[in-house]
UniProtKB/TrEMBL annotation:
<dbReference type="Pfam" id="PF00005">
    <property type="entry name" value="ABC_tran"/>
</dbReference>
<dbReference type="InterPro" id="IPR003593">
    <property type="entry name" value="AAA+_ATPase"/>
</dbReference>
<dbReference type="InterPro" id="IPR027417">
    <property type="entry name" value="P-loop_NTPase"/>
</dbReference>
<keyword id="KW-0067">ATP-binding</keyword>
<dbReference type="GO" id="GO:0005524">
    <property type="term" value="F:ATP binding"/>
</dbReference>
<dbReference type="InterPro" id="IPR015854">
    <property type="entry name" value="ABC_transpr_LolD-like"/>
</dbReference>
<keyword id="KW-0547">Nucleotide-binding</keyword>
<protein>
    <submittedName>
        <fullName>ABC transporter ATP-binding protein</fullName>
    </submittedName>
</protein>
<feature type="domain" description="ABC transporter">
    <location>
        <begin position="2"/>
        <end position="207"/>
    </location>
</feature>
<dbReference type="InterPro" id="IPR003439">
    <property type="entry name" value="ABC_transporter-like_ATP-bd"/>
</dbReference>
């Protein structure tokens, strides 16, 4: 469950104060946040992930107000409860696909379960490249690895930043289907921010910033 209320944010040395609409998602509900470039979508996503601290307001993930957590507790909470899908690939280049997923579980304070990793890789059509180095993967494989890294630890909340904007219609559908399916499997809230209106039909809730 994700809630935010009265969220405002101001970057240091700037005048602009962002005010964001309240969010209240029940278990398994998903949310699409739409808005034009520069409106503050990534800023809001970073507030929901606890990467930025708001100037005011709260963000509660599974009833924990993450704005009140101190650095170590916040890192730990985020590692265990939040999965982030970035536009750019965030895999560790010196590790192969399997090692990246093992590392992700390790940093989430979870036991490394090879069967679980391989099952997810098979679902995302990545099993054949489990020992491949990151720099040898195709764009599509990298994208699917990004999804694998964001869900392997079965987070309560999956946050995705523009996961489809550079994709053609066929790949856009593949990525969205995977995200929605993975979120449903672990009963997670899925929040996607984008300016890509093609993905609107996938979502129960939409906020336009
Ligand atoms: N670290 C920062 N310091 C000062 N201003 C910033 C910082 N990061 C972002 N901004 C400004 O805040 C505004 C909102 O940025 P943000 O990245 O949240 O927008 P966005 O809606 O995600 O845009 P886009 O769709 O282009 O990625 C922009 O005007 C940006 O220049």
């Amino acid at each position: 469950m994700l809630q935010s209320s009265n969220l405002t944010f101001q970057y240091k040395k700037t005048d602009r104060l962002f005010r964001f609409p309240n969010i209240d998602l029940k278990t398994q509900e998903n949310l699409l946040i739409l808005g034009k470039s520069g409106i503050g979508k990534t800023t809001l996503l970073h507030l929901l992930a606890g990467i930025l601290k708001p100037s005011s307001g709260i963000v509660a993930v599974n009833n924990v107000d993450i704005t009140r957590l101190r650095d170590n507790s916040l890192d730990r909470f985020r590692g265990q409860n939040i999965g982030l899908v970035f536009q750019q690939n965030h895999a560790i280049q010196t590790l192969n696909v399997l090692e990246n997923l093992k590392a992700r579980l390790f940093f989430s304070y979870q036991k490394v379960n090879l069967q679980k990793i391989e099952a997810l890789l098979a679902e995302l059509d990545l099993l054949d490249c489990k020992t491949s180095k990151i720099q040898t993967l195709s764009e599509g494989q990298l994208q699917r690895l990004g999804i694998a890294l964001s869900v392997i630890h079965e987070p309560e909340l999956i946050l995705a930043d523009e996961p489809t904007s550079s994709l053609d219609d066929a790949n856009c559908k593949i990525v969205l289907d995977l995200l929605v399916k993975q979120a449903a499997k672990t009963k997670a809230n899925l929040v996607v921010i984008t300016h890509d209106h093609r993905i609107r039909p996938y979502f129960q809730n939409t906020i336009v910033l």
